[in-house]
Amino acid sequence: MATDIIMPQLGESIAEGTVVKWLIPAGSIVERDQPLLEVETEKVALEIPSPAAGRLSEILVKEGETVPVGTVLGRIDGVPVTDVINRVGGVVVRPMEPVAKQGGKERVATGETGQRSEAGAEEGAMPLSPAVRHLAKQHGVDLSQVKGTGAGGRITKKDVEDFIAHCRTEAAQTVSPAGRPAVTNEEETADEIVPLTPMRKIIAERMVNSRRTAAHVTTVFEADFSAIAACRKDRPLTYLPFVVHAVARAIRAFPIMNSSWSDEGIVIKRAIHIGIATALEEGLLVPVVRHADRKSVTHLAQEIADLAERARSKRLNPDEVLGGTFSITNHGGFGSLLSTPIIHHPQIAILGVGAVQKRPVVIHDAIAIRSMAYLSLSFDHRVIDGATADRFMAKVKDAIEQSDWERNL
């Protein structure tokens, strides 16, 4: 009996999705809930799990194709009795495949999925995801040569991609016996075309649309983060949750900052849902911290870390990137001091947080060393005047510079 793999509804306003990559080749044996493929929409990127156990008999939608919600992407057939899946040490193997000896230990060959039995695994080896195994097999990577950066030293997909890129760089730098580059001048100067990914296309469209629609203006304030620096000392907290807490408090004082433009009028949102711009390898996602004004700094830190980790591993739920009313981008995490971020339409403002650095500043006519950072607010001048934006930023600055952060943890 065949089971259809369907393009799911990834949010109320989402009508279609793009197949980015099939993680399992056609003909492979799969388990229920095993990641099958990566899908992207304009709001989220995530892995689609297998709806049933069996054999991936058909792939009907190829990588790079965009199809409507409800489209059949592929099919999984039930495995015949003669090809029953056994389990050896918790790992799926096929019973008909030979057992090979390697180094005095038995290893069970497993066909296309590249999985091995525990009997042949090195003692203490970390489990590998199907995506990692498939990528390694596709590029002929010896996983024993790859250093894992995941939890407990687990090898991630990015680790394998970085290893492949490193090998290619070394190969490009190989010299001939005469000491000259192995590549020709023509090859060295040839331009490279990097195909646009679905996510990059969507980001480009949304950014251009935002600049074309909203009347962008940016105002910049400098804030003293010394009180926060002292509060987070010996605590596993970054600066970002403190900023989110301060912004949420300022929004309550200036609800116009929590609004959007419409032809009928300005829509002021009652709930404060703050989007946190999260950088991925292939682009940017903005998961949303809901009701940020109701949460402590510690609660905000835990939620931001969880959303960011699941955004990077493509495990966000579609509704976790919807409904944001104000956005924050922490470009300072990469060392940037100042930026003029683009508004996340249909919101009307976004706050950029620069790197926190110790700088000499004048306090009460004396020079002191303080932990300082620039805060840049891009806002839609159709909705907000400069005076309102500056008063809002002064409120954010005051909240950041308050001395009693302990009671907000």
Q: What's the overall average pLDDT, rounded?
A: 82
Question: What fraction strand?
Answer: 25-35%
**What percent of the residues sit in helical stretches (DSSP H or I)?**
10-25%
Q: How many helices does DSSP assign?
A: 8
Identify the notable features of this structure and list them briefly:
7-stranded mixed sheet; 3 domains; 8 helices; 4-stranded antiparallel sheet; 23 strands; 409 residues; Dihydrolipoamide Transferase; alpha+beta; OB fold (Dihydrolipoamide Acetyltransferase, E2P); Chloramphenicol Acetyltransferase; globular
Question: Could you characterize what this model shows?
Answer:
Helix 1 (130-139) runs parallel beside helix 2 (157-172), helix 6 crosses helix 7 and helix 6 crosses helix 8 (386-401). Mean pLDDT is 82; it is low at 81-124. The protein has three domains: 2-79, OB fold (Dihydrolipoamide Acetyltransferase, E2P) (Beta Barrel); 126-178, Dihydrolipoamide Transferase; 198-408, 2-Layer Sandwich (Chloramphenicol Acetyltransferase), CATH 3.30.559.10. It is built from eight helices and 23 strands. It has 409 residues and is of the alpha+beta class.
